[in-house]
């Protein structure tokens, strides 16, 4: 009997632990799941746009009466979270932010205000995971981007996320930038951040209407275009497509991509690059000046032959590899020159490598690094290997009778 009396309190405590719930638990039906967050400038206020999923519209019913799968809520406030809390003035549900897929800043906000305070506020909130993608709305508002309805993916924010993820793995000019990586680049010495740009093309008046998903060729489409260059937390300019590709090669972001080299008869040979490995190494010359050795090894295959070059000849393959290597050097030199001369920031992480090599030198020069960068010598070492020529040898165009 005495043992039973001693065991009873212990069993009650154990049962209470098993049965107790989270103190801040909320019912799913009471939540509005935010998929995308847009930030625009409204005078001296912050305007937020929340793209919230509508559960009833996300089922199997995709017919004429299915309705739009998301709704937008807007609010303004002096700080981010004041504006977000004001969303409840028009939203009957509490906003749940753990499933944010994309954070979109307008170009004007990124240039004039800077994105640091917004990122800091979101990172401080333990309910917001930092694995969402950050992007800049080019020549338009973040609200416009998030209001655009998309095909294939019914939730536009999910489309933006998935499209960027796929593109970054198959097309060199694009890259994914998560919030935690972006904040790390902002806070680190010797590197400045970049953020992917997104723009709306086509009939902007129909972007937010059902007409945009009612046809096989939507009148308005979202495109990723260029990388935004930042100094601290403010946008200062853009890289074009070629420069964005060069940046990603230097930062070892390229998984696979397609490019081309010229033929002697003004035709083209397309190369599909399958594997890229980039190494950046800093050293100091006899004058105690830093230099960067940039080494890239790439492996690719011939994707198409749109000329009369005989690719079955091993000597021709060697010539094509040399042409590819020369094209690489030209692209990388142009990219570095543009960024260094035009923007005077180090988005490549050269400063980080110099810091690792000679910390004492870096401490003495880091405050003036943006100016010292213009005198930095970069040596390029490129090795491109064509592994296969595809299912054909020489192009059958050589055998077509005139």
Automatic annotation (TrEMBL):
NCBIfam families: spore_ger_x_C (TIGR02887). Residues 1-25 form the signal peptide. It is found in: Membrane. It comes from Paenibacillus oryzae. Belongs to the GerABKC lipoprotein family. It comes from the Bacteria. One of its GO terms (cellular component) is membrane. Residues 225-390 form the Spore germination GerAC-like C-terminal domain. Its main location: membrane. It is a lipid-anchor. GO terms for biological process: spore germination. Keywords: Germination, Lipoprotein, Membrane, Palmitate, Signal. Residues 24-199 form the Spore germination protein N-terminal domain. Pfam families: Spore_GerAC (PF05504), Spore_GerAC_N (PF25198). InterPro entries: GerAC_N (IPR057336), Spore_GerAC-like (IPR008844), Spore_GerAC-like_C (IPR046953), Spore_GerAC_C_sf (IPR038501). This is Spore gernimation protein GerC.
